Amino acid sequence: MTRTSSTTLMTILLFVIHLNVSAQSDWENLFDGKSLDGWKASENPKTFSIEDGMIVVDGPRAHLFYIGDVNNHTFKNFEFKADVKTMPGSNSGMYFHTEYQKKGWPDKGYEVQVNNSHTDWRRTASLYGVDDVRDAPADDNEWFTQHIIVQDSLITIKVDGEVVTQYVEPKDVKENAGSSQRYLDQGTFALQGHDPESKVYYKNIMVKALPD
Q1: Structural domain includes residue 21
Q2: pTM score above 0.85
Protein backbone atom coordinates (compact mmCIF):
# COMPACT_ATOMS: atom_id res chain seq x y z
CA MET A 1 0.00 0.00 0.00
CA THR A 2 1.36 3.42 -0.92
CA ARG A 3 1.80 6.19 1.62
CA THR A 4 -0.97 8.20 -0.07
CA SER A 5 -3.38 5.26 0.05
CA SER A 6 -2.56 4.66 3.71
CA THR A 7 -3.22 8.32 4.53
CA THR A 8 -6.51 8.27 2.63
CA LEU A 9 -7.64 5.10 4.43
CA MET A 10 -6.77 6.62 7.80
CA THR A 11 -8.75 9.76 6.93
CA ILE A 12 -11.79 7.67 6.01
CA LEU A 13 -11.55 5.63 9.21
CA LEU A 14 -11.32 8.76 11.34
CA PHE A 15 -14.33 10.22 9.54
CA VAL A 16 -16.38 7.07 10.15
CA ILE A 17 -15.39 7.08 13.83
CA HIS A 18 -16.40 10.74 14.06
CA LEU A 19 -19.81 9.97 12.53
CA ASN A 20 -20.36 7.10 14.97
CA VAL A 21 -19.41 9.22 17.96
CA SER A 22 -21.63 12.06 16.77
CA ALA A 23 -24.58 9.72 16.26
CA GLN A 24 -24.16 8.29 19.76
CA SER A 25 -23.76 11.73 21.35
CA ASP A 26 -27.10 12.85 19.94
CA TRP A 27 -28.77 10.61 22.53
CA GLU A 28 -29.47 12.29 25.87
CA ASN A 29 -30.29 10.59 29.15
CA LEU A 30 -33.58 11.52 30.79
CA PHE A 31 -32.92 9.46 33.94
CA ASP A 32 -29.73 9.76 35.97
CA GLY A 33 -30.11 6.31 37.58
CA LYS A 34 -30.02 7.79 41.07
CA SER A 35 -33.03 10.06 41.50
CA LEU A 36 -36.27 11.25 39.92
CA ASP A 37 -34.81 14.69 39.22
CA GLY A 38 -36.50 16.04 36.10
CA TRP A 39 -39.59 13.90 36.61
CA LYS A 40 -42.93 14.64 38.28
CA ALA A 41 -45.44 12.02 39.42
CA SER A 42 -49.21 12.39 39.44
CA GLU A 43 -51.79 11.32 42.06
CA ASN A 44 -49.76 8.51 43.76
CA PRO A 45 -46.06 9.49 43.75
CA LYS A 46 -45.06 6.51 45.90
CA THR A 47 -45.83 4.25 42.93
CA PHE A 48 -42.38 5.24 41.61
CA SER A 49 -39.09 4.53 43.36
CA ILE A 50 -35.39 4.05 42.55
CA GLU A 51 -33.61 0.74 42.98
CA ASP A 52 -30.15 -0.21 41.67
CA GLY A 53 -30.22 2.33 38.85
CA MET A 54 -33.79 1.53 37.81
CA ILE A 55 -37.17 3.21 38.09
CA VAL A 56 -39.47 0.73 39.81
CA VAL A 57 -43.18 1.12 39.02
CA ASP A 58 -45.18 -0.62 41.73
CA GLY A 59 -48.41 0.72 43.19
CA PRO A 60 -51.77 2.34 42.42
CA ARG A 61 -52.40 4.32 39.26
CA ALA A 62 -49.95 7.15 38.67
CA HIS A 63 -47.98 8.65 35.82
CA LEU A 64 -44.40 9.89 35.88
CA PHE A 65 -43.92 12.87 33.53
CA TYR A 66 -40.59 14.12 32.26
CA ILE A 67 -40.34 17.84 33.11
CA GLY A 68 -36.56 18.23 32.87
CA ASP A 69 -34.23 20.44 30.88
CA VAL A 70 -33.56 18.28 27.84
CA ASN A 71 -35.15 20.12 24.91
CA ASN A 72 -37.18 22.00 27.52
CA HIS A 73 -39.16 18.71 27.87
CA THR A 74 -40.94 19.42 24.59
CA PHE A 75 -40.51 17.06 21.66
CA LYS A 76 -42.12 16.84 18.24
CA ASN A 77 -40.00 14.56 16.07
CA PHE A 78 -37.81 12.27 18.15
CA GLU A 79 -36.45 8.84 19.00
CA PHE A 80 -37.17 7.61 22.53
CA LYS A 81 -36.04 4.33 24.02
CA ALA A 82 -35.86 2.57 27.34
CA ASP A 83 -34.91 -0.83 28.69
CA VAL A 84 -37.93 -2.46 30.33
CA LYS A 85 -38.66 -5.54 32.42
CA THR A 86 -42.20 -6.62 33.28
CA MET A 87 -43.25 -8.94 36.06
CA PRO A 88 -45.94 -11.55 35.21
CA GLY A 89 -49.42 -10.05 34.87
CA SER A 90 -48.15 -6.47 34.80
CA ASN A 91 -49.25 -3.50 32.72
CA SER A 92 -47.56 -0.16 32.04
CA GLY A 93 -47.02 2.22 29.16
CA MET A 94 -44.96 4.99 27.62
CA TYR A 95 -46.79 8.19 26.68
CA PHE A 96 -45.45 10.74 24.22
CA HIS A 97 -46.64 14.17 23.06
CA THR A 98 -48.31 14.41 26.45
CA GLU A 99 -48.28 16.94 29.32
CA TYR A 100 -48.42 16.80 33.09
CA GLN A 101 -51.83 16.38 34.71
CA LYS A 102 -52.60 15.84 38.37
CA LYS A 103 -54.70 12.69 38.10
CA GLY A 104 -56.33 10.24 35.71
CA TRP A 105 -55.11 8.69 32.50
CA PRO A 106 -53.26 11.31 30.43
CA ASP A 107 -55.66 13.12 28.10
CA LYS A 108 -53.01 14.33 25.68
CA GLY A 109 -50.83 12.26 23.37
CA TYR A 110 -50.45 8.60 22.47
CA GLU A 111 -49.60 5.62 24.67
CA VAL A 112 -47.27 2.82 23.64
CA GLN A 113 -48.22 -0.27 25.61
CA VAL A 114 -45.91 -2.20 27.96
CA ASN A 115 -47.71 -5.46 28.70
CA ASN A 116 -46.62 -9.03 28.03
CA SER A 117 -49.19 -10.99 30.06
CA HIS A 118 -51.76 -8.67 31.73
CA THR A 119 -55.48 -9.38 31.28
CA ASP A 120 -55.65 -6.46 28.83
CA TRP A 121 -55.06 -8.16 25.48
CA ARG A 122 -53.21 -5.17 23.98
CA ARG A 123 -49.57 -6.18 24.22
CA THR A 124 -46.18 -4.47 24.26
CA ALA A 125 -45.55 -2.21 21.23
CA SER A 126 -49.27 -1.50 20.70
CA LEU A 127 -50.09 2.09 19.86
CA TYR A 128 -52.85 1.82 22.41
CA GLY A 129 -56.36 1.73 20.97
CA VAL A 130 -55.08 2.79 17.55
CA ASP A 131 -52.85 0.02 16.18
CA ASP A 132 -52.82 -2.84 18.67
CA VAL A 133 -50.60 -5.92 18.97
CA ARG A 134 -52.12 -9.23 20.15
CA ASP A 135 -48.94 -11.32 20.47
CA ALA A 136 -46.34 -10.06 22.91
CA PRO A 137 -42.95 -9.42 21.25
CA ALA A 138 -41.15 -9.77 24.60
CA ASP A 139 -41.30 -11.92 27.73
CA ASP A 140 -41.88 -11.22 31.41
CA ASN A 141 -38.85 -11.34 33.72
CA GLU A 142 -36.50 -10.44 30.86
CA TRP A 143 -35.11 -7.06 29.82
CA PHE A 144 -36.12 -5.72 26.42
CA THR A 145 -35.67 -2.37 24.69
CA GLN A 146 -38.71 -0.50 23.44
CA HIS A 147 -37.89 2.20 20.90
CA ILE A 148 -40.37 4.80 19.66
CA ILE A 149 -39.65 6.95 16.61
CA VAL A 150 -41.88 9.84 15.52
CA GLN A 151 -41.11 11.60 12.26
CA ASP A 152 -43.85 13.91 11.05
CA SER A 153 -46.95 11.68 10.62
CA LEU A 154 -45.11 8.35 10.93
CA ILE A 155 -44.91 6.48 14.25
CA THR A 156 -42.57 3.47 14.42
CA ILE A 157 -42.31 1.18 17.44
CA LYS A 158 -39.47 -1.31 17.75
CA VAL A 159 -38.72 -4.01 20.31
CA ASP A 160 -35.10 -5.14 20.53
CA GLY A 161 -34.39 -3.52 17.17
CA GLU A 162 -37.27 -5.19 15.30
CA VAL A 163 -40.13 -3.10 13.92
CA VAL A 164 -43.39 -4.28 15.51
CA THR A 165 -45.77 -1.40 14.75
CA GLN A 166 -45.84 1.33 12.13
CA TYR A 167 -48.68 3.81 11.89
CA VAL A 168 -49.19 6.79 9.62
CA GLU A 169 -51.55 9.26 11.23
CA PRO A 170 -54.27 10.42 8.80
CA LYS A 171 -54.22 14.09 7.93
CA ASP A 172 -57.71 14.74 9.30
CA VAL A 173 -57.22 13.19 12.76
CA LYS A 174 -56.91 16.50 14.60
CA GLU A 175 -59.88 18.04 12.82
CA ASN A 176 -62.07 15.04 13.67
CA ALA A 177 -60.78 14.50 17.23
CA GLY A 178 -63.52 16.44 18.99
CA SER A 179 -62.61 16.64 22.69
CA SER A 180 -59.92 13.97 22.32
CA GLN A 181 -56.26 14.99 22.20
CA ARG A 182 -55.07 11.68 20.73
CA TYR A 183 -53.14 13.10 17.82
CA LEU A 184 -49.57 14.04 16.98
CA ASP A 185 -48.59 17.45 18.24
CA GLN A 186 -45.68 17.99 20.62
CA GLY A 187 -45.07 17.41 24.30
CA THR A 188 -43.23 15.33 26.84
CA PHE A 189 -43.02 11.67 27.89
CA ALA A 190 -44.63 9.79 30.76
CA LEU A 191 -44.28 6.34 32.28
CA GLN A 192 -47.43 4.66 33.50
CA GLY A 193 -48.19 2.99 36.80
CA HIS A 194 -51.31 1.05 35.86
CA ASP A 195 -52.55 -0.73 39.00
CA PRO A 196 -51.36 -2.10 42.38
CA GLU A 197 -50.81 -5.58 40.93
CA SER A 198 -48.42 -4.39 38.20
CA LYS A 199 -44.66 -4.16 38.73
CA VAL A 200 -42.41 -2.91 35.95
CA TYR A 201 -38.77 -1.75 35.81
CA TYR A 202 -37.28 0.95 33.57
CA LYS A 203 -33.67 1.98 32.96
CA ASN A 204 -31.49 3.62 30.28
CA ILE A 205 -34.23 6.09 29.36
CA MET A 206 -32.94 8.15 26.45
CA VAL A 207 -34.12 10.54 23.77
CA LYS A 208 -32.80 11.94 20.53
CA ALA A 209 -34.53 15.03 19.13
CA LEU A 210 -35.01 14.89 15.34
CA PRO A 211 -35.39 17.81 12.93
CA ASP A 212 -38.94 19.09 12.39
Answers
A1: no
A2: yes
